Structures are given as C-alpha cells and as structure tokens.
Amino acid sequence: MKAKKIFLLSALLVAAFFVMSLTFGSLSAEAAEKVYRMKIQSAYPRGDLSMELLKEFAAAADKNSKGRIKIQVFAAPEIVPVENLFEAVQKGTLTMLHAVAAMWGGIIPVGEVEFGLPYAYNLPGEPDVYQAGKQIRDFFMNTGFADLLRKEYAKQGLYWLDVHSYGPIFTMSTKKVTTCDDLKGMKIRVEGSWSDYYNALGAHGTYISGEETYMGLKLGTIDASQWDVSAVTGLNWQEVAPYRILGGQNDVVVGHILVNMETWNSLPDDLKKALSDAAEQYFHDLNKIYDGELKKVAELVKAGKVINSPIDAACDKKHEEAAYQIWDKIAERDAAAAQGIEIIRAWRKTLK
Fold first, then answer.
1. Which of 48, 108, 215, 309 has the fewest CB atoms within 10 Å around its CB?
2. Each residue of 41-74: pLDDT tens digit?
3. Which of 305, 294, 177, 170 is nearest to 242 (CA)?
4. Predicted pLDDT at 16
C-alpha cells in the first residue's frame, strides 16, 4: 500500500513538472516572439527631409528585429503639439520623439550644449556633409559626451538613443545681410541659446513653429529663420526669403531620438541592439540625403533662386565673440552643462 502511494505521488510530480515545462516553454517562446508596437513623432512638419526619412528608420528597426519592432511615424503636430513632445514620451503616449535638444534646454540645460552652441560645431576647413557628420558623431561617441547625455535624460525617464546630423545650418532671410549693421533689429526665428546669440548682435531672436515659418517670413512677422537644407528643398522658404546668410553658423545641425525609458528597459538585449542599429543607419542615410539636397541648393544658387549672403570678416569676429559669451552663460546653468562645455572645449583643441 505504501509503495503504491509513493508511486502515485511520483507520477503526480512528474506530470506537474511536465505541465510546468510546457507552460514556461510556451511563455518563453511567447516572450521571444512578442511584437513591440511603437510610435515616434517628429518635431518637424511633413516636407522636412529628416521627418520624411523616419520611415526608413522604422523599416530598418523592423528588418533588424525580424518583424518584432513595428514603428508608426508621425509628423508635427499629428499626435501632440511640438511643445508637448517631451512630456508625451515621458508618459508613454508616444514611444519616441525626433527633434533637436535645444527644445528641451529649459528642462535639461545640457540639451543646449548637445544641440550645438554657436560655433561649437563650426569645423575647420570646408568639410562636406559626410566629413562633418562623422566628426560630430565621433565626438559624441568617443569623448564621453553621449554617456553624459544618457545620464541626464535618464533622470527625466528617457533614453537618449542616438545622434544624427541635418547638415549645415541654413539661415534664410528676406533681406541681404553682409554686415552686423544689417542684422540690427531683424527678427530671426531660432532655437535655444541662439536667441541670446542674435540678441547680443543687435537682432531679435524669437521662436515660432516650423509649420508657421513660411507664412511668418511672407507676412514679415519674422525676417529670417534657421533650419537645415530642408528650408529650401523641402519647405521652399526661398520663395519668400531668398537670401542665405553665411558665416557665424555651425557646420552641423544636431538632432536626436529619445525613447520612453520604461519601453527601452522592457526590450530584450537583441531588440535594443536592433533599435540602436536602426538609429545609426538613420544617421548615415540622412548624410546621403543631405549631400544630394545641398547639390540641389547649389543649382538653385546658379539659377538665382537662392542668393548667398556672406557676412564680412568684422561681423564674423563679432559673432565669434558673442558665441563664447553664450558658452559661459550656459555653463552656469548646471553641472552637466558645464561638464558638456568642457568636453567640447577639449575636443575642439584636437581639431585641425
């Protein structure tokens, strides 16, 4: 009788173990095959090149993950207004955002540094899009700057995924500018610390959204606006502001992709890599696109539809002096901003 009970107990244990194995095996397989559905919204309207190319970022994430990451792409302001992007990703309304860090400078002061303080990404020589982009990416990834950014954004519940380049700054103006006297009183749409920069030069830095800029230039609400080459090849600002101000600019406009931290932490390591690799590919894809777009601008210059307006040496010197004053002011905002600026100063000493 006793032997029979032991036999029954053993049989029950074996059966339970078998059921548990099937259950955990099923759960494990389910976890491995889970599809992560995400939403990314850009800070830029349709027609902006970097926004339109986000579909390639989504396609790369899908391919890298073997279909386990599905990303829907939205332009500004299709889900939330631009000013609410940061909070929307924090809360998980959106999974990711695509923007420039200057938009969040009031929340994360080092974001101003990341975006590119005036003259920070002003590179020696005349680098093309590929050279300039590579220099900036190497700076982010090889100096500890990206680590600093990830630490600061993590405090806000966000993961800093990667950097990308929009090519050189384009400042399109309704009037020709060659001296700093020409700048006086001009209303220039800019972002972040560039407002203080132009204020110091006698202009008036202001901000309106990208989708409002064409009409603002046309109606005289603003006299000039910063953007990237999409200002011309995507948004057609040259129709109402044909002068491109040259000098006092950066050779790279830096953007980023931020991810909701809870979502990022939920991803298996292989999917984190799939998403990271897609973001790096997006960086390279953008460089190819912008190289082609800059060639289109050169043709428009030849046709007289875009008019280059270089500032003179005296005005360029004033721009440089104003820029370094801005650096000092931003460094006072918090320890991370100061650290970021010191990293940039050290890096710039290595440039040739």
1. 215
2. 999 988 888 999 999 999 999 999 999 999 999 9
3. 305
4. 47
Determine the pLDDT at residue 12.
Answer: 45
Beta carbons within 10 angstroms of residue 212's beta carbon: 14
Within 192-299, strands assigned E span 204-206, 224-227, 243-246, 254-260
Q: How far apart are CA 148 and CA 139, in angstroms?
A: 12
Strand partners, 257: 98, 162
Closest C-alpha to 306, from 248, 235, 201, 254: 235
Q: What are the contacts of 271-278 at 24+ separation with CB within 8 A?
A: 271/36, 271/65, 271/68, 271/69, 273/64, 274/61, 274/64, 274/65, 274/68, 274/69, 275/61, 275/64, 275/65, 275/69, 275/161, 276/161, 276/162, 277/60, 277/64, 278/57, 278/58, 278/60, 278/61, 278/64
| pLDDT tens column, 281-317 | 999 999 998 899 999 999 999 999 999 999 999 999 9
Which residues are registered as beta bridge partners of 158? 260
The H or E element that residue 71 is part of is strand 69-74
Segments of the chain with pLDDT less than 70: 1-32
pTM, two decimals, is 0.82
Tokens of 84: 């609410």
The pair of structure tokens assigned to 309 is 């307006």
With residue 74 as reference, give the H or E element that holds it. Answer: strand 69-74
Main-chain phi, psi angles of 20, to 5 degrees: -65, -40
User: Got the DSSP string for 332-345?
Assistant: TT-HHHHHHHHHHH
Q: Which stretches within 99-144 are classed as H helix? A: 110-116, 129-142
Between the alpha carbon of residue 239 and those of residues 38, 233, 274, 298, 304, the distances in Å are 37, 11, 41, 16, 11
Cβ pair 98, 323 in contact under 8 A: no
Burial of 131: CB neighbours in 10 Å, binned 0-12, 13-18, 19+: middle
- Pairing of the two strands 170-173 and 224-227: antiparallel
Structure tokens at 169: 């700054």
